[in-house]
Design a protein that fits this description.
mainly beta; 8% helix; DNA-binding (chains A, B); Immunoglobulin-like; transcription regulation (chains A, B); homodimer; T-box transcription factor TBX1 (chains A, B); RNA polymerase II cis-regulatory region sequence-specific DNA binding (chains A, B); DNA-binding
Amino acid sequence: RRMFPTFQVKIFGMDPMADYMLLMDFVPVDDKRYRQVPHCPRHGARLVGYAFHSSSWLVAGKADPATPGRVHYHPDSPAKGAQWMKQIVSFDKLKLTNNLLDDNGHIILNSMHRYQPRFHVVYVDPRKDSEKYAEENFKTFVFEETRFTAVTAYQNHRITQLKIASNPFAKGFRDCDPEDW
Amino acid sequence: RRMFPTFQVKIFGMDPMADYMLLMDFVPVDDKRYRQVPHCPRHGARLVGYAFHSSSWLVAGKADPATPGRVHYHPDSPAKGAQWMKQIVSFDKLKLTNNLLDDNGHIILNSMHRYQPRFHVVYVDPRKDSEKYAEENFKTFVFEETRFTAVTAYQNHRITQLKIASNPFAKGFRDCDPEDW
DNA sequence: CCCTTTTCACCTAGGTGGTAAGAT
DNA sequence: ATCTTACCACCTAGGTGAAAAGGG
């Protein structure tokens, strides 16, 4: 599925005439596996069907084996600096999956693990021996506030409500105008 | 609205590593305005509502003033020759309008006039004085079988049926499987 | 019990010709 | 009478969380 909200950046300082590739990848934040806070029927209220729990996570142990470290190129790549800078760049085609055998080129993540999205800008070096300069021709940006825990089902009702309120495709689940929210 | 069927080309012979722009424009086939064959209620059957007529056109006089000669760049432009050649190039984002004040960048045509679509390949010359070589850096292709008469409403029931049978978005108007057609 | 998978109703977004009304 | 415009039901295509079913 698509990552929501979408990762978006506003870019400054490129050479307007040069070509750049823009891409994203995801790295584990730590070496842990998480689990939800236990549902304790003896002390809690009786819950039917799927039960939402607290907003915190417990460490469940060591991380599962790392997934293939795939990369997502922004589909407009390559493009001139002027093109990238003239409006906000949106990674809305990026999709996440937990399927290790995925052959759609989606980003593969382990559920119940924490990830840090990273954004990379690669300068397309016109020189013939450009491979030699690979190390100096890219720059990586990390925004820590974009960290998240990958899940197959939401663990926190407030996250669900936030998604329903802000994602236009979830309008069918709203019970009031998101402007009033 | 979109042009249907879509103009599609398979390209050979480009320099795989060079950049090209692909674009289309539309030129008048002649200097005439057309009109449908008259509906003659005295000799024909009585027709209720909209009446379809013969499959031929009558010349109604001299062409209306030419519309702004807009151009449609394939949205993947510019791209490498290798990219353009590896699959059929489809101009499915191209849209036609009769609105002279259109500000969506659509191709403006006069209704009831005949047009010839043209396909242009422009080599992006990396030399600094590339403007000097503009004349030798493009090639135009004309397929006469793609000529058509622009209309605001279909004049020929067989054209309508062909569109309904072949355009997936018109599936709601089909009364049998297009495979059986 | 905890998590994952599958299916679904319900949306967004936009491409069809039909149809009735409008314009000349 | 002929052509154009505006709106519509009905599609394609695909993004939502809910809910039920499945797995360990």
